[in-house]
Amino acid sequence: MTHFNQEGTVVVKTYNNMAEALAAKELLEENGIQAIVEDLDVMGLSPLAGIKIKVFSGDEEQARQLLQPS
């Protein structure tokens, strides 16, 4: 697993399930955008916490375009 400093990152999308979040991360990385999945529901206590996809701020616009529904 690749780790990088999250400073300068922004949330581009929030998902309700991990499968969708991981698919979005894969799509971004296939297009040259480093992305991280941040699951705020660490303890399984809040199903509404959401799973956030973060990218570097310089990639935000392109990432949002890639993640738009077709």
UniProtKB/TrEMBL annotation:
Domain DUF2007: from-to ranges: 14-68
Organism listed in the record: Niabella soli DSM 19437
Family annotation (SUPFAM superfamilies): GlnB-like (SSF54913)
Entry protein name: DUF2007 domain-containing protein
InterPro entries with a match to the protein in the record: DUF2007 (IPR018551), N-reg_PII-like_a/b (IPR011322)
Superkingdom as given in the UniProt entry: Bacteria
